[in-house]
Amino acid sequence: MPTTYFLGYRLKIGIVVIVIMVLGFFNESQGTAHYGEDSVGSFPYFEYNVPRNVTTVVGQTAFLHCRVEQLGDKAVSWIRKRDLHILTAGILTYTSDQRFQVIRPDKSENWTLQIKFPQERDAGIYECQVNTEPKMSLAFQLNVVEAKAHILGPADLYVKTGSALSLTCILSQGPHDLGTIFWYKGSNIIEYKEVEGNEVAMEPRIRLKTEWTEQLTSRLTIEKLTPGDSGNYSCVPTMAEASSVNVHVINGEHPAAMQHGNANTASPCALSVNLLISLYCTIATLYTSTIDGFR
């Protein structure tokens, strides 16, 4: 009886030990699988839904936005591709050029490279890098253009008193965040009034319309010109080189006569030709008369 009881007791102990081992193995397996999932899921990766071909104009601050998810204990650096110069590492700047700076709000995934007062020489490829093994990098193309406004038509414009002046300024180079265009007469900004569609008022003498299509276009219209409207008119974009024309408001003669000269007035070249022809005819007449005299 004691032997049978002892064997039963050992059997129970053995079963308990086996159950504990199985449960321990199961828990260990679950823990290993969970760890592996976390280690893969927490690996850094780039957010690709950001502008990677950025265009700015000379003098306008440029921003390259790099977003890194699940960075962990890794560090983000910005590299200039053409000379492999390290511009920033973490939040520190590693260049003496103070125009470069990294902007990273606290606990943010965004690592933005800011370039102040960019010049055309700053154009090129910049890489956002993460010091993983192997290294991760994402390339950004920066384009820096020198935008310039252009007023359609001649540099000197002649118009008649009482007629209308229409100047069109276009800006086709540069991004769409160039702002707007201002018009100046001399050093004074031109003031105008915009009339709403439901507003009952006389049509303003000076109108301005600025719109974006494939380019930035601004049209300045001045009705019922007077000689006092003569002067230098400039189209001045907020972030581009200005353009100007000289406007001459005249009385009497048609502007075409002022631009191209009076068609009834002979040029010096025409006078010379006419003089030569007259001289030739005179000599020919004298020669013929002399020959007839000898006969």
UniProtKB/TrEMBL annotation:
Q: Which GO terms describe its biological process?
A: synapse organization
**Positions of transmembrane segments:** 6-26
| Cellular component, GO annotation | neuron projection membrane
Q: Which SMART domains match?
A: IG (SM00409), IGc2 (SM00408)
Keywords in alphabetical order: Kinase, Membrane, Receptor, Transferase, Transmembrane, Transmembrane helix
Q: Name one Pfam family in it.
A: V-set
Query: GO: which molecular function terms?
Result: kinase activity
Q: Report the superkingdom from the record.
A: Eukaryota
Name all Ig-like domain ranges.
44-131, 134-246
What name does this protein carry? Tyrosine-protein kinase receptor TYRO3
What species was this sequence derived from? Papilio xuthus (Asian swallowtail butterfly)
